[in-house]
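Table S2 (continued). Query chain:
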Amino acid sequence: QVQLVESGGGLVQAGGSLRLSCAASGSTGSIGTMGWFRQAPGKQRELVAIISSSGSTNYADSVRGRFTISRENAKNTVYLQMNSLKPEDTAVYYCYAQITNWSLRSEYWGQGTQVTVHS
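Corresponding output:
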């Protein structure tokens, strides 16, 4: 059984920074792409950033240049460094991972962590 445990969310002033962490535990096999999504009230869940197993990254236009995604494969952990935060970044942030066990590839989600940016 795989579990994605998130941490690092909270309340921050506009212009400030936060770092989110997400660690995969349990019956982890081969972990492929990991990433972060977010969902604001009344809006659809959207991609924030993804990172492949080899380190290739992609970002939403709205966060490019401000956010940095990284991973430590030995710790099965993905990070999201968020700088120059804006009120519009306020959302629930969800960790995502593709994990293959017994030749079966599944997608997993964290429980979500609230990020609130106030002006």
